[in-house]
Structures are given as C-alpha cells and as structure tokens.
Design a protein that fits this description.
Layout: E1 18-27, E2 30-31, E3 36-41, E4 44-49, E5 55-62, E6 64-71, E7 78-84, E8 91-94, H1 100-106, E9 164-173, E10 194-205, E11 217-235, H2 240-243, H3 272-278, E12 294-316, E13 319-335, E14 341-358, E15 363-379, H4 388-392, E16 408-411, E17 424-441, E18 444-460, E19 464-471, H5 479-484, E20 490-495, E21 499-518, E22 521-532, E23 536-537, E24 543-547, E25 554-558, E26 570-578, E27 587-596, H6 600-608, E28 616-621, E29 645-647, E30 655-667, E31 671-689, E32 710-732, E33 735-748, E34 752-753, E35 756-757, H7 761-765, E36 797-798, E37 805-815, E38 818-827, E39 831-832, E40 852-853, E41 864-865, E42 880-881, E43 885-899, E44 902-911, E45 942-950
Parallel strand pairs: 1-8, 16-19, 29-32
Antiparallel strand pairs: 1-2, 1-5, 3-4, 3-6, 6-7, 9-10, 9-45, 10-11, 11-12, 12-13, 13-14, 14-15, 15-17, 17-18, 18-21, 19-20, 20-28, 21-22, 21-23, 22-26, 24-25, 26-27, 27-30, 30-31, 31-32, 32-33, 33-36, 33-37, 34-35, 37-38, 38-43, 39-42, 40-41, 43-44, 44-45
Amino acid sequence: MGSRLILILCLLASTLYAADYRGQVTFHNLPVPGATVTATRGDQQFSTITDPQGSYVFLNLADGPWTISIEMTGFSAIHQDITVAPNTPPGHWELRVLPLDQIQAKVSPPMQLSIQPPENKPENSATTDEGFLINGSVNNGAASPFAQSAAFGNRRFTKSGLYNGGLGLILDNSALDAAPFSLTGQRTPKPTYNDLNGILTFGGPLRIPHLLENGPNVFATYERTQNSNAATTSGLVPTLAQRSGIFASPVLDPLTGAPFPGNVIPQDRISPQARALLNLYPLPNFQSNARYNYQIPIITPTHKDALQSRVNKFLNNRSQLYGGFAFQSTRQDTPNLFGFLDTTDSLGLNTNVNWWHRLSQEWFVNVGFQFSRLATHLTPYFENRENVSGIAGISGNNQSPMNWGPPALTFSSGISGLNDGLPEFNRNQTSRVSYSAEWNHRGHNITLGGDFRRQEFNYLAQQDPRGSFTFTGAATGNDFAGFLLGIPDTSSIAFGNADKYFRESVYDAYFTDDWRVGPQLTINAGMRWEYGAPITELYGRLVNLNLTSGFTAANPVIGNGLLRPDKSGFEPRIGIAWRPVSGSSLVVRAGYGIYRDTSVYQNIVLELSQQPPLSKTLNVANSPADPLTLANGFQASPLSTPNTFAVDPNFRVGYAQEWNASIQRDLPGSLQMTASYLGIKGTRGVQEFLPNTYAPGAANPCPACPAGFVYLTSNGNSSREAAQLQLRRRLHNGLTAMLQYTFSKSIDDDAMLGGQSAQSPSQNSNETQTTAAAPTESKTPPATIAQNWQNLSAERSLSFFDQRHLLTLMTQYTIKGWTFGSSLTAGTGLPETPIYLTPVPGTGFTGTIRPEYRGGAFPNPAAYTTPLPGQWGNAGRNSITGPAQFVLNTSLGRTFRLKDRWHLDLRADATNVLNHVSFTSWNTTVNNAQFGLPIAAQPMRTMQLVMRLRF
C-alpha cells in the first residue's frame, strides 16, 4: 500500500507469457536519442523514449501482435505491426528525414534554420510537433520523467560534447502527504518519514588514450531508493473480559453440551496453549465495538540499489555487438498488527550479449545469450529468537530455529488472525540462447528463429511449517471460546522436503512474414511453436496421487514424469493494417493469434513437492473420530488421505485465442479517434475441486473414498470481450490530451488465470491486520476451489478481474515554459465472492462454502444466511461488486536552461491530489464481524518534488 501503488487491471490476456521487447532507432547508422516509441494493442498503450544510444525497451510486454510507432521531430513517423514473443529479435528502425517544406509545415511559428551554436538557439524554436507529446521540448521537458536528451542535433566542438549525463532527485516527506485513511474513524498518529530517490546517469564512448581510441558506446544508470509506505492498520483483538473467559452470549461446554454457568469459562478449563498465544495479542487501544477496537500506524521501509548499463559497439558497417548488465539489491522491513517485523532481502542480476550481422542488403542475423538470477531471503520475526510453539506446549509442527514462532490462527467472527511470515531462501536463474534471421525482399520482411531456455528454481522453503488452526465455534457456539478451551475446528500443516531443485527446459521456433502488399495494405502472418516440458525435480522428489475412476481409491506415486508432456504448442498469428482510401487518414487494423500459458507448471510442482511420504501434510476437521486440541492438533486422520494435493496426469497447458479489430481516423481540430474491439477465448483453464466432499448436514455418500485433497484439472474455459473508444488531441497550441473509455465483460469457470488467483477469503478477513510478506510456497487459496465438486459448471461467473467500465483522461498543457499534466482514472469495482467460513465436511479445508442468498443488496447482512442443511449455498461466485475506483494525479514542471548543455528539470507530482478515499475491496465473509466493511483504502494524497540536472 505504498504511496505510489499502481492499480493493475488483470485482463484475461494475463494468461499469456510476457517478454521484453527491445530495439534501436538510428539515422544513417547513428543512434537517435529522444525519439518517442509507442507500443499499442487494443486498449493497452505504452510509451518510452530512446536513450543516448538510441535504444529502448518495453519490459514484460504480453506476447502477441503490437503496433510500434516511432516519432521524432524532423523525421517521417514509423508505424509498424510486429509480433512480440520471448525470442523476438530487437527492432532496428532507420529514420528518414522529412522534406524541408513538411518540416516547416509542422512547426508554428515556422522554423528558423540556423547554424548558430546551441547556446544561441531560440528557446521556443519548436514546441508544437506531436513528437513532443511525452519527451517534451525545452519548455515542457520537465513534465515527464522521460525528458528529451539534448544530445541529438546539437553541434559538438569538443570530444567532451560526446558525453552526456544526468543527476536526479525525488524528495518526499510525510509533512507533504495526507494522513493514511482510518477505517475506524479513530485518530491515529501520523507516521513520520523521509523518502529519497536519487538517479545518476552517464553515457558516451569509452576511450582510453593510447589503448582504446575507438571504444564502444556505454550508458549506465545508478539508482538509490529509500521509500516508506505508511498505513493505518485496524483490527479486532480480544477484550479483557474475553481474555478472562467472560462472554455476553451462551458458550457450550463441549464435555457436557450444556452452556457454562453465567457464560463464564472456568479458569482451570482455559488451555495453557491458549494462554501462551494470547500473550502475543495486544490489548484494545480504544473503546471496544463489535467490529474494531485496535488501531496503530505502521511504516514499511524499502531500500533499493539498482544499476543498469548498456554497451553498443559497431564492429564495422556490417556487424554490431551490444549487450547490457543490470543489478538490483532490495531490502524491506515488513511490520504487522502484532509488532512482528519480518525482513526481506533480494538480489537480482541480469546480463545479455548479442551479435547482429548483415550478410547482405537483404539478410540479417542476430545471435544472443541472456542470463538472469534472483535470490530472495525472507527472515521472520521469530526466527532464531523464540520458540513460541515449544514454550506453549504445541507439538507436531516444525520447531527448528528458523521456523520458531506461533502457528497461524484464524477466527470466523473477525478477531484478527495471528500470523507471521515464513522463512525462505530461494535462488532462481534462467539461461537463454536465441537466434533469429531476417530477410527483406520485395515487400516481404521475413523473420525466423528460435531459442532455448533452461530455467532453474531452487527453493529452501516450506508451505506451512508452524501449522494453522481455524476456529469457527462449531463445538462451542463461539470461535474465541473454542480457542480458550483449546479446541480448533480445523488444523493444517505442511513441512518437510524443504530444499527443492526444479528444472525446466523451454524450446520455441517461429516464422513471421511482414508483407507490404502495397502502400495501403500490410499483412503480418506467422506461426510459432513452443514447448515447455513439465518441470522436474533434480532428485525426483515429487509426489502425485494415482486415482481410480470415480475417486474411489488413491495411492501416492513418487518421481519425475508424473505429467504427460504437451508438445502441441502451435500458435498461428496474423495481423493486417489497411488504408481503404488512398490519401485518407482512415486506417483499419485487425489481428488473430493463439497464445499458451507457459507458466502453469511452476505452481503445480510447488504443491507436488510438499506431499507425503516426502513431507508431513494434513488438513483435518475436528470430530469425535479426530479430536483436535491446540496441544496435539497436527495428527493425520485415518479417515482421509494425508496428501492434500493431486493433479490430473493428463493435464494440458491452457491457451487463449485472441482477436481484435480497430478503426482509426483523424478528425478536425488536431483530433484522432480510434475505436477498437478485443475478444479472448481461453481454453484448458485450471480447475480445482475437493473430491468426495458433501454439503454440511448431508450424509457422507462414500465414507471409504479418499478425501481431504485438492484435485487440479485443465477443463476450465473463459472469455473476455472489450470495446474501447479513444479520442486523442495531438499537441497543438501547448495542449495535448487523451480520453479513453473501455467497456468489457469477462466470464470464466477457471480457478487460476495464468497462475493468478482470487485471494483467499480467510486472508481477506484479516488483510487489515497484517502486511506480512506471503511465503513463496503458499497453500492453494480456498477461493479458487469449487464449492461443489460434482457441479463445476456452477462456478462459471464473472472473472475476478472483470471491470465493466473504465475511463481514463490524460492532459498536458504548456504555457510560458510551465507544463501542467494530469491523469484521471475512474472505474467500476471488481467482483468478489461471498463466503461462509465453516469446515468442508470430510476435509480440514475452510473458505470454499458460500452462504445462502435470500435477496437484497450487499452489504446488508440479512441478504445472506447459513446454507440450508444438506445443501450447498446458492450465493454465486464473484456475485458481489467491489468498491469503485477513482484517482486523480497531477504534475507541474519546467525545464531551466542553465548554460550551454546544462539543463535543470523541476517537477512537482501529486498522487490522489483530491485526497479521495477509494477502497480496495470488501470483507465478504458473512459470519465475520467486519462483513460489508472495506478491507483497506488506496493510498491517500502524496506529493513529491523531482529535480533533474542534465548535461
């Protein structure tokens, strides 16, 4: 919940693989800095500016057809349809100078050609060209962090003029920011902090006298960040009366079934384990109410050091060698409601080297190698500090020093759940070799190539080593009373086989023809084949269940090769751009493509590696046959399988078909209108259900059948359709603007789209109580699991990322050297699922059962009730609309010319300038005290001062 949190709309296309797309813009083989490069597809648009080497990069650009536009004052604009894939070769774009009369026609007042040195150039010589929409001129360059470099087009009189650099500072202080929003309305002290973001850039040719006279061009950026995310955290903690066992409503004695006299639990009946864990809870700090009674301010500080460098060397007029190196170190402290402070350290490295060679005027080849590595180390508060479980007398969980700490506690009534982060030390790396060749001949630009990626995922982590207890009050009529008596309603645990070494090989090959049929028609068509082998474990430590038909019997199977490979990854793609009327601005574009979900195996093997007999896992519900206590609640049940996860051995990789069409036309008044349509159809989506479960109150139809595990298949389907209208005003008389409206609808019965899933209801209920980092290996969120395993079609509903209406308005106005910019985003809420928190019969899972819907509008509690005995709740998945979104950001800036090539950019940025309260989501657990209340609020107003010195 940082001050610069970005709201990400997860489209259905998030099932697709994302890749980096790089390129270089040149003029007569010389790099062109400051050119505006825009990538557009449907309702998505990203822009960047070429650096002093003319290079640009779009990070994590989704696979598929994109339109690349390149604009630079004095040059013809380039508009080219491309297909982005993990192996797409870097783009090489050669600019062409416009005729003199067209250059003059684009500039108002007419450009005065001059051979004067740069220091004598009129400051307002060019301010109206559309190319300055983002990078700006001398006047409006400060309006954007992508201010244009002054290197291109200036006369250079000394060798020092070949070098350029910059120094930037971004300052933020708590005095400039609004106080975090309080969910309770209680006054809480405003946290105090200072943020600093420093950036140092330098670029130019590398020269060593008498040793290296004609070295490569080098560009490096170093960034130091000290950021603080402030929030006000609210919760419901036990009162003094509750701690003493005094309740306002009857509490049942589980030994007799009768209420305790006076609704008071005798002191000798309070569990010693409960007393020990209760010491970790703070006392209320304001007057108690039924929903909240505790609130504190917290600050999450983050420190980051990052270095990025690029090297480019033309070996001759036919060959080029280029590459880069990036390094990032991040340290973060994560506190929570209970005062537990976890720390996370991560170190990332990325390097690449590429050789580009022109065989002839028509043939070009590119060979590259890339290596990346990321190490993450999370240290929980209690690691090597205090063995909470051992001191409390809790047995059965992992009590090694790195896993010291309390078990996780969840209460259905809304009492803040006790939790802390889990230890992990993960090292992941990827090595990639790529090859591509391009042949340009008679209007055909043919690209073919392929690559090989070897991915290693090395984990030292466990899913739930300290264990988890859930209290719903099934045995006592009150969940906290059950806690005091030491009787949980469910328990779960998963530990063992901590070190895991996953390996995956990914192959692909592709062919694309960018065919310029004529001056009015371009066709881009191709085929891609991609095969990602199922991930294996270096020592074969994976476990799946061998299930009989109808799930009547289950036996564990150990080793690799548990999933059949899917080599049918053929992905045809085609895109067209057509100008139906010669000389008209009307352009029609359309495209179709198939894209596969290449990341689905990683989540699967994380689950398969944490299964018996290699580790201890269980999900158990309290019952006469399985009596649970806090002291001894992590014992396997003889009534259910100890394995908690299994996957269909015939699991297939999911894919999405995407089709789009758009019409673009210029209008009077420097306006441009674009109307577009996007459709996506997902197939073979992930589905999860609990075999052999039954509705609460019903009889067990198969007591001898295995139960208590999640089963994963690939039978899900999804669809998304979106219509978008965009109206853009080109920069004219100092004003540019873009208004965009998107209407869309997404439906699916898919549990996880591209590995992204809806949040667990039990997590939802306590989101305001903790900001502890989630472990790398977390159990399957219950919200992704179907309620009724025999009726999966009932899961078809709105997608959890479905946003029906989204409006975006961006403006920029320049007057007398000052530039004012603003961006407004308004959208309807995202769907959420109502939950009735109670154990699923036959398992230890909670959070998958939905309430009975009586009618009425959310958040009226009377609209929902306990499911009817023997029946599943009829409340639909994702049937609640979340809170609407609204945010307005503004900026004001100017560039001051100090002397010659020295410029100072000043800019003030305000995020959520109106200090408008927008909530993230609702609490949708109907038997929770916070039902219908917001989980948290988006960041309130923050202000920053940005200074950048360019030379």
